[in-house]
Design a protein that fits this description.
mainly alpha, 3-stranded antiparallel sheet, globular, Lgt, transferase, phosphatidylglycerol-prolipoprotein diacylglyceryl transferase activity
């Protein structure tokens, strides 16, 4: 539905092109930092700090998150860009196209599903190196990842991307008429569904839901990750269906990103069911057997030998550091 002129004045304005970059002049050198990249970086830092705290409470070595994030972030960015390029080939491959634009991630165009795939591979590699359990790290990361995604969506706002179909709702989003995602023929005062805002709200609510369920039911062994996949997949399946620039590939009339969202939901359900049957109890440690980290100040007393599963969970349902302190050899030199 096309917005009227009156609703244009009761809408969400988009930042102008000058907001997409922050100029920095240092010692005569002129730099322009992409606002999109800054928001992604802030999200990564927030996720790393929160995940580190959650892992440390479970008995992981402080600072081990840096080893994990190094692999996860690099492969996550690569996966995000590749997925976007492969699902929008006409934007990059056409007569006279500059193929170097395939690598121009600062201009936007990074698919979250590709990031999840690449990031998961990175986490798996890091866990093999550090001795951590993949499922423990994934569970610790799940709510922090959702919060990071909410922060990163602000980058889409500054880039004037990730918006939906035309609307006359009072919170319709203003988009510059020259935006290449706008279909030809729409009036210049058309407002659009602010999908970036919808996803921010959905993700923030999801963080609360995930943390609540995790503490209420003591979710471990990948089940917190499963809740994340189900929640995020459900939200994205709807948002992608009303996106104005969906992926170019579709099956049965459904865009590939919607199928990816459905797959995330199914995968989350499968992980939850399988892991609930395989691991009905609590994790003995966030480390694999023989790879545990010992705290330098750890003391062993007679009470430790008689502890049961309750000793590994604090009042909020969080496993305590003692769960990871029953160690024989450090995981890192």
């Amino acid at each position: 539905m096309v917005a009227t002129m009156s609703s244009w004045f009761a809408s969400i304005p988009s930042p102008g092109p000058e907001w997409q970059q922050i100029p920095i002049d240092i010692f005569g050198l002129h730099w322009r930092i992409q606002t999109y990249a800054i928001m992604i970086l802030i999200g990564i830092v927030v996720a790393a700090l929160w995940t580190s705290r959650r892992l440390t409470k479970r008995g992981a070595e402080p600072g081990v998150i840096l080893d994990i994030m190094l692999w996860a972030v690099v492969l996550g960015i690569i996966g995000a860009r590749l997925y976007h390029v492969f699902t929008h080939p006409s934007d990059y491959f056409y007569p006279g196209a500059n193929l170097l634009n395939v690598f121009a991630i600062w201009e936007g165009g990074n698919a979250i599903f590709g990031s999840l795939i690449g990031g998961a591979v990175g986490i798996w590699i890091a866990c093999r190196i550090s001795g951590l359990r993949f499922w423990s790290v994934a569970d610790a990361l799940a709510p922090a990842l959702l919060l990071a995604q909410a922060i990163g969506r602000l980058g889409n706002y500054f880039n004037q991307e990730l918006f939906g179909l035309p609307t006359n709702l009072p919170w319709g989003l203003q988009i510059d008429a020259g935006n290449k995602a706008i279909p030809v023929g729409l009036p210049a005062d058309t407002l659009f569904q602010p999908l970036f805002l919808y996803e921010i709200i959905w993700n923030v609510i999801g963080v609360v839901v995930i943390v609540f369920l995790e503490r209420k039911f003591r979710l471990q062994w990948g089940k917190t990750l499963a809740v994340y996949l189900i929640w995020y997949g459900l939200g994205r399946s709807y948002l992608e269906s009303i996106r104005i620039d969906p992926s170019e590939f579709s099956f049965l009339g459904i865009p590939s990103n919607v199928w990816a969202a459905f797959l995330a939901v199914v995968l989350g359900i499968v992980i939850f069911i399988v892991q609930s049957r395989r691991h009905p109890g609590l994790e003995p440690s966030v480390y694999r057997p023989g790879r545990e980290w010992v705290r330098p100040d750890a003391e062993v007393d007679s009470d430790d030998t008689d502890s049961d599963d309750e000793d590994f969970v604090d009042g909020d349902g969080e496993p305590t550091a003692s769960a990871g302190a029953k160690a024989t050899s450090p995981s890192r030199g």
